[in-house]
Amino acid sequence: MPLRKNSTSRTSGPARLPSYVRNVNSAQCLFCPYGADVKVGDRVIAWDEKTVFDRTPRERVVEITAVKSFRTNGRVITLDMVVASDEEVKRIAEDSEISAHALLTHRSGKSTYDTQNTPVVVYFRTYEAKNDMLQLVPDLDVTSTGNQPSKRYQHISLWSRLKSWLSGWTLRNS
């Protein structure tokens, strides 16, 4: 039984990677066992659950640099049909907080393997922009008007505004 009669649609925030990484500050890739709906050039949020106090997740905007299809036969892992080195497999496993053995065993024919959503490895780099938060809000327009003041009082000095206020105040009280 639903708690609400009408299901309200939530406003969608910025896209996120489908899983969390070991350390959002140092990770470079992420194994997504059920695929990921991202493409090269997307800016999404990567997050981890390991904070100093083990309480809140850390988030960081990252830019997707590559999405490689993942295949394994139990002995060899290929990324986009190129055999991955042992160092690459260890880095993927470490960044994704899983074991290298789990990567080798995630293959077609296993009960946990979803043939509709094939596994991928998403490579990313941190995206450092001066106004990161402004870019996460798609409807916010922060265009500049050049040297023209947007309001009349912006070009009037503080002293002249104080004098005009005082003269208005003295006229009202006399």
Can you characterise this structure?
By secondary structure, this protein is α+β, with helices and mostly antiparallel strands. It has one domain. Helix content is 22%, strand content 21%. It is built from 4 helices and 6 strands; from the N terminus they run E-E-E-E-E-H-H-E-H-H. It has helices at residues 86-96, 100-105, 132-136, 158-173; strands at residues 29-32, 43-48, 58-72, 77-79, 82-83, 120-126. The longest helix has 16 residues, at 158-173. The chain is rod-shaped, with a radius of gyration of 26 Å. Residues 1-5, 7-11 and 140-145 have low confidence and may be disordered.
The rounded Rg comes to 26 Å
Shape: rod-shaped
Distance between the termini: 70 Å
What is the domain total for the residues?
1
Q: Overall mean pLDDT score? A: 78
- What percent strand? 15-25%
Structural class: alpha+beta
Low-confidence stretches: 1-5, 7-11, 140-145
Bin the helical content: 10-25%
Largest sheet: 6 strands, antiparallel
Number of E-state strands: 6
Q: So how many helices?
A: 4
